[in-house]
Amino acid sequence: MGKTLFDKIWDAHVVTEIQDGPSILYIDRQFIHEVTSPQAFTGIEGRGRKVFRPSQITATADHNIPTMDQHLPIKEYLSAFQVEKLKENSARHGITYYGLGDEFNGIVHVVGPELGYTQPGMTIVCGDSHTSTHGAFGAVAFGVGTSEVEMVFASQCIMQPKPKRMRITIDGELGKGVTSKDVILYILSKLTASGATGYFIEYAGSTIRNMSMEARMTVCNMSIELGARGGMIAPDQKTFDYVKGRKYAPQGADFDKAVATWKQLYSDADATFDKEYTFDAADIIPMITYGTNPGLGMKITDKIPSLASVDPSTKDTFVKALQYMGFEPEQQLLGKEVDWVFVGSCTNGRIEDFRLLAAMLKGRKRAPHINTYIVPGSYLVEKQIKEEGLDKIFAEADVELRQPGCSSCLAMNEDKVPSGKYCVATSNRNFEGRQGPGARTILASPLTAAAAIITGKITDPREFL
Question: 96: buried, middle or exposed (CB in 10 Å: 19+, 13-18, 0-12)?
Answer without folding.
Answer: middle
